[in-house]
Amino acid sequence: MKQRFIILFAFISICAHSQFYGDLEIDRESISDWIVDDNQDYNGTYLFGYSEGESELRIFGIDSLRIAQLRTYVWQENNWLDTFKLFTNVRIKESSFYSDQVKGRFVKFNADGKNQKGLWILNPWSYEFYEGGEIGSKWRDGIKGKFPQASTEVLSEEYLEKMNSEELSIMSNEIFARYSYKFRGGGEMDKYFSSQDWYYSNYESVDQFLTSIEQENISRIKKVEKRKTVANTK
Q: 195-221 burial, b if ≥16 CB within 10 A, otherwise e?
């Protein structure tokens, strides 16, 4: 316990400026290390900023394949478009978060009278004037859709074999739908996803947004679909 206190004190000392959660300034005395036994407990969606500056940092995967994906919003052609950026060389050591783009620490804190868990980013993307860093809270609302696991973990072919053809089709296309992909107008997938309240149609191509986990799952789903098609023709 004493060692953890020393680590946190040194971390705060380096960041002598104020810390922010949204537009709220956080009392630094309310911030403490968030320690877990399994660092996969840090996986999830973290909400940063507020109003037009709101953004999400999604963290998932395991140490050998850790993904951190930033979702932000840009105003374009009289419409808010969500856009995505992948951080590189992502790793978590104890309660520290590292990547080529940003660094931070997983913490517990008090904001607006509520105890919360979150991620304290030292060099935040949301507001450059937050010199002491910005804290994003862990958000319960995460990946949308019927098969969110297709975006968060590599699925085994044995698992996929248990799915029927319709489920496999929805699962693979749902990956693209989460990035606001425009399906062929009037087609089966266009009708299905247009009925989902979370779906927006914005992009002709979303390949640039796909994570390595999603790319691998799309490849595996196609492989299983092909085997099922061959089996059904015999």
A: eeeebbeebeebeebbbebbeebbebb
Query: Rounded to 10 degrees, what is the CA torsion of 41, 92, 51, 195?
Result: -50
Between the ranges 12-21, 62-71, 107-116, 216-225, where is the mean pLDDT highest? 216-225
* Residue 109: how many other CB atoms lie within 10 Å: 21
* φ, ψ at 38 (rounded to 5°): -125, 120
Helix (H), strand (E), coil (C) string for the chain: CHHHHHHHHHHHHHCCCCEEECCEEECHHHCEECCCCCHHHHCEEEEECCHHHCEEEEEEEECCEEEEEEEEEEECCCCEEEEEEECCCCEEECCEEECCCCEEEEEEEEECCEEEEEEEECCCCCCCCCCCCEEEEEECCCCCCCCCHHHHCCCCHHHHHCCCHHHHHHHHHHHHHCCCECCCCCCHHHHHHHCCCCCCCCECCCHHHCCHHHHHHHHHHHHHHHHHHHHHHC
- Of residues 216 and 75, more confidently modeled: 216
> For the whole model, what pTM was predicted?
0.83
Note the pLDDT tens digit of each residue in 130-160. 567 888 999 876 789 999 999 999 999 999 9
CB-based contact 109:118 (threshold 8 Å): yes
The closest of 144, 99, 140, 142 to 123, measured between CA atoms, is 99
